């Protein structure tokens, strides 16, 4: 009887350990990426440092750059970047994250190279159906 109780106890401990490991693995595999602070700037210099950062850009600005760092729990996770102007989607870009951590840069610019229109903009970073981070900016006169 003692031997049966000992075997059942060991089996229970082993099964609990397996279930805990599977749950933790599932937890990490279903977590969206972590995104650091969103930095908006006019450009990046030759060593990828932001130039003229801020949330307000003067009319005549031809592009706005979004820069952020990330950390993922599962490689090959897709990030979506959605640029909006006055609530209307202007552009949507995606990138597959192949490294566990790093940084990304995206640009908003008009195809014809004209200045960005005056008004309110937003940019959101999304993954796995979640908005991970969002920021707003404005182009003024």
Keywords:
single chain; 141 residues; alpha+beta; 5-stranded mixed beta sheet; 1 helix; elongated
Taken in chain order, the helices and strands follow as HEEEEEEEEEEE
Tell me the Rg in angstroms.
23 Å
Strand-residue proportion: over 45%
- Cα shape: elongated
**Mean of residue pLDDT?**
84
The N- and C-terminal alpha carbons lie at a distance of 86 Å
Q: In DSSP terms, counting alpha (H) and pi (I) runs of 4 or more, how many helices?
A: 1
Residues in helix, %: 10-25%
Strand order of the largest sheet: 5-11-10-7-8
Total strand segments: 11
Oligomer designation: single chain
**Which class of secondary structure composition applies to the elements?**
alpha+beta
- Low-confidence sequence ranges: 23-28
Major sheet: 5 strands, mixed
Description:
With 141 residues, this protein is α+β, with helices and mostly antiparallel strands. 20% of the residues lie in helices and 49% in strands. The protein has one helix at 2-29, and strands at 34-35, 39-41, 43-44, 50-51, 56-58, 63-71, 77-85, 88-97, 101-109, 119-127, 130-140. It has a five-stranded mixed beta sheet, with no helix packed on it. Strand 7 (77-85) and strand 8 form a beta hairpin.
Which helices and strands appear, and what pairs or packs with what?
Blueprint: H1 2-29, E1 34-35, E2 39-41, E3 43-44, E4 50-51, E5 56-58, E6 63-71, E7 77-85, E8 88-97, E9 101-109, E10 119-127, E11 130-140
Parallel strand pairs: 5-11
Antiparallel strand pairs: 1-6, 2-6, 3-4, 6-9, 7-8, 7-10, 10-11
Provide a brief overview of the structure.
This protein is of the alpha+beta class. Helices cover about 20% and strands about 50% of the residues.
């Amino acid at each position: 009887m003692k031997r049966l109780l000992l075997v059942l106890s060991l089996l229970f401990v082993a099964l609990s350990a397996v279930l805990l490991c599977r749950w933790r693995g599932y937890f990490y595999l279903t977590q969206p990426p972590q995104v650091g602070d969103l930095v908006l700037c006019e450009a990046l210099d030759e060593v990828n440092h932001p130039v003229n950062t801020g949330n307000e850009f003067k009319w005549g600005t031809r592009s706005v750059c979004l820069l952020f760092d990330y950390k993922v729990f599962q490689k090959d996770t897709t990030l979506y970047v959605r640029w909006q102007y006055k609530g209307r989607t202007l552009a949507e870009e995606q990138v597959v994250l192949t490294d566990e951590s790093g940084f990304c840069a995206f640009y908003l610019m008009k195809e014809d190279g004209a200045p960005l229109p005056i008004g309110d903009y937003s940019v959101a970073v999304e993954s796995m159906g979640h908005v991970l981070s969002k920021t707003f900016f404005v182009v003024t006169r």
